[in-house]
Amino acid sequence: MFTGIVEELGTVVVREERFAGGQVTAAVLRIRAAKVLEDVQLGDSIAVNGVCLTVTDVDGDVWSTDVMAETLIRSSLGGAGEGQPVNLERAVAPHTRLGGHLMQGHVDGVGRILGRTPGEHWEVVRIALPPQLARYVVEKGSIAVDGVSLTVSAVSAADLAEPWFEVSLIPTTLRETTLGARAAGEPVNLEVDVIAKYVERLLGASR
To answer: In this structure, are 125 and 166 located in the same domain?
Structure first.
């Protein structure tokens, strides 16, 4: 589990793709980091742009992880390349303060930055999301965008062909996560509040 409080910006230094039958079946990412490696052990979980990945090797300030084809297809990591900054967060420990909200590191879909509106003390970012996820996103609710726990400040009408939501980013988020540099048209990983999905499932089962 994670909290959506990004600990540091890492950098992808190597991407090695694995092939079978002419198809990409996996990739190895090697990521330079510092803070998340302070107490790292092989097999630990680290969220990379909101995707829970397993540490398979550590060499100095670079750690490695295997990314399966399913993850490459269903998240923005499919396009992650050398030199790209990524949000990093270690798995939550029992004594950790829950500063964001509980996240699994299981991406529900890929959204797209529609636009940014700068303000005096914050910036409003509008993000398109897959229609099937719109029902889980509510004003004042929580959502993870590239692994960052954010509060939804506005939502579109539910029946739009391309629904959207907005979040307001404070200077710290703009400065210390990848969201400060995401431009219109760029993809972002989305994980909706898991509680909403469980409630929907339970209500459906009771009918």
So the answer is: yes
Residues 64 and 140 reside in one and the same domain: no
Joined tokens for residue 207: 């009918």
Shared-domain flag, residues 192 and 120: yes
Q: Which domain holds residue 74?
A: 8-90
Q: Note whether 71 and 126 are same-domain residues.
A: no
Whether residues 142 and 196 share a domain: the answer is yes
User: Can you give the pLDDT of all 207 residues of the chain as single tens digits?
Assistant: 999 999 999 999 999 999 998 899 999 999 999 999 999 999 999 999 999 999 999 999 999 999 999 999 999 999 999 999 999 999 998 877 788 898 999 999 999 999 999 988 899 999 999 999 999 999 999 999 999 999 999 999 878 899 999 999 999 999 999 999 999 999 999 999 998 888 888 988 665
Is the whole model's pTM more than 0.85, yes or no? yes
